[in-house]
Write the structure tokens for this entry.
Amino acid sequence: MQHNLADLLKQREGESLDFKQKISSCDKIAKTLCSFANTNGGIILVGVRDDRTVSGIDPEEEKFMLEQAALHFCQPPIKLQYEEVEDEDERTVLIVMVAQSMEKPHASLNKGGAWQVYTRLNDKSLPAGKHSIRQMEKQPLIPSAPHLNKNENAILSYLKEHEKITAKELAHLINFSRRRAERLLTDMSGRGLIRLFEHEQENYYA
């Protein structure tokens, strides 16, 4: 697939798009690679600053770092696809494509020598908890189109406007008991409609 660099640069970083001026650390980029593979896949533009201006890179140097990260800092290893494009000033940008994986969960190796599973939420790669990892292991690659009831539609509409929701917030939103709200969120998570993020203060869904 041929990508249009100008169109990609109009977008902001998010769940499926990330900008990197260059690859300077295998463990850091492995974290991003794993989070994309564990979620819905994504694209990394290497040679682009955070403000979406092109800096340009040597694509072979960047590919070497990316391959080292994908093979040795990701478990299982992640297969990457590349596309090289140039802007109007002939500066090269490397487009790195990461597909949603059928071998999830993928873990990345950090500087402390520990393996950690990550998932993607908006423009962040976040550690996945035990429940999220179990969901990755049993969730199909492409969930079947679900039939949604009124409450499920209300939750998804809320999440279009807000980054996350907790069981407490849902109970207030649709006038449910906290226990019933937790059951509904757990069911939707199990069906792949939303994802659970485990937090030491309070779990939330996105």
Notes: The two ends are 29 Å apart (CA to CA). The chain is about 35% helix and 20% strand. The chain has two domains: 5-128, 143-205. Residues 54 and 142 are 34 Å apart (CA to CA).
